Amino acid sequence: MTTLAPRTDTLTRDALAVLQPGFQGTAAPDWLLRRVGEGLTSVGLFGRNIASPAQLAALTARLRAERDDVLVAIDEEGGDVTRLEVRHGSSFPGNLALGAVDDTALTRDVARELGRRLAECGVNLNWAPSADVNSNPGNPVIGVRSFGADPQLVARHTAAYVEGLQAAGVAACTKHFPGHGDTAVDSHHAMPRIDVDLDTLHARELVPFRAAIAAGSKSVMSAHILLPALDPARPATLSPQILTGLLREELGYDGLIITDGMEMQAISATYGIELGSVMAIAAGADAICVGGGLADDGTVLRLRDALVAAVRDGVLPEERLADAAARVRALAGWTRRSRGAWGAPGPGTASQEGTAPGTGTGIGLVAARRALRITRSIGFTPVTSAPYVAAFTPVANIAVGDETPWGVAAELARLLPGTTTGTYHSGNSTPEQVIGAAEGRRIVAVVRDVHRHPWMALALEALTAARPDTVVVEMGVPQAQPRGGLYIATHGAARVCGRAAAEVVAGV
Fold this sequence. Notes:
alpha/beta; six-stranded parallel β-sheet; 18 helices; 14 strands; 40% helix; 11% strand; globular
């Protein structure tokens, strides 16, 4: 049964208002437009929904034909996590590269330009930036998505990113509160646990969130992580002590609180998305993010009706749901006013700049070049003829996804026509295989988080011992010892990071 109340009553509209669902396809389905008309205030976009800037602008215009102030959200961090440029890689380096440069003006400019492109396509809420302090270099899900391991550095760049993004009229969503950096488990798969005391939490994890709040971040996203020092029983997303006690009361945050995806296993496998959503709103969250995996009308109806039933059964106070819905609508109103200030885009008006590989030398490429850290061996010479690129490829985490290409092969092929590439995994990465495939050509080994993958470290050590002139490009967190005739740390795997590295390899 999915009709617990008339579509137009206040309770049902409030329940719809707090949902941020996704959908399939590149056009808004009829069911989604119908729910927007009934009170749904937010829609989440993923890579599957985007084919081009013009298509995206038309999609958002169609949504606004149903509701002028609809929040259109996206997970566009730049760098490794891109939805706007999911098919060929981002025009902007990610957080770790910006942190490596450590120029807050540059970070602000990058965020402003990214925000401009989102706003031009009609997107007005970005689930970014990641304010996590990557204190655990073995973290399987944060890594290059963090500005770094120093809380003060992360804080100043988080604030600059928020300011830049919101200067373009796009609301920032600082995540993953109260900090996902010291985890060894990906919350997409299970429940991470952080066993630190309150002093450590305040001196490390919370520092960037305080900075984001001071910078006026319009929203904050909760993490599905367990912090026993704050709440031994419930993860942050479901914890009144963390969302209301810490974030609202102690830190004084008055903006919108959004949950991370409720279909992630840390929540769905333990509580289920219906109970989890009710618990999240009761704990102090205002918006329920769902749709990365569950993207259909049935999911929206299940969550809507679970919230309505919880209010009717006395489990969820009606005023708490009403307050959450009011906060969603308040942010929607801010984005509408911001759009009016900047000028609303129309279908087909979105800029194409930066959407095709190799175009332009904008702020993203400037930042990527500045982020490189280069170690040359004595006597190294640039690669002047087509090399062989050996891409040592780990399994991508869900946040990054495996649909976005990465590496340097495409950019090297543009500079050195005839460049070829091979992909290597844990079972086929002996130096003999790579050297044989190279057939006498210079070898460029591309790796990602060598320190987290023992098979990759062994393969790279053996390869550089056999061919000391090998070029090594590390596109993850650069924790391992530099190797090879030329070692380049890009601090991320965005397309512009690959282009900046390829320019150095080819000596241009």
